[in-house]
Design goal:
single chain; 34% helix; five-stranded antiparallel sheet; OB fold (Dihydrolipoamide Acetyltransferase, E2P)
Length: 172
Amino acid sequence: MKSKVKVVLLAFLMLIFTIGCASQQSPDYYRRGQAQGMQKVIYGTVVDVRNVMIEGTKTPVGTVVGGIAGAIVGSTIGGGAGRKLATVAGATAGAVGGSVAEEKITQKEGVELIIDLDRGETVAVVQEISVEFFPGDRVRLVEDKDGTTKAMLLGDRGLYQKSSVRPRPDQE
């Protein structure tokens, strides 16, 4: 019985590790490879805002953890051939359940912004919610070489509010 407890504990820790490794989609986070790289900056005005859900991660960890937990639970049912069948059924159900659970646990609330760019185009940007956007807000878009784009507020509610970087005195 102690070995089953250890396996369940290990499975639980693997699930927690998966949740902790979920990628950040917020404009406040940069991947290591984006640091010290040049990115394109574009300015525009928000014309529409819509709340969306950003899909969670789908790694093998949720499936494996769920399968292990399901097999352990199944192995406690019945005896002989019935126990083997319950173990297999438990592993299968646990794997499916673990995969679904991982995706739901790592899902994020997001926002879709429709933005009229100063250069005359209209674009849509989807990202994790970091601040509340409203139609009419001025934004700065930062586009990475891989096409990833982040929208950040300008003005009173935006940049320089939480930052230690301030504009030069002659630009205030």
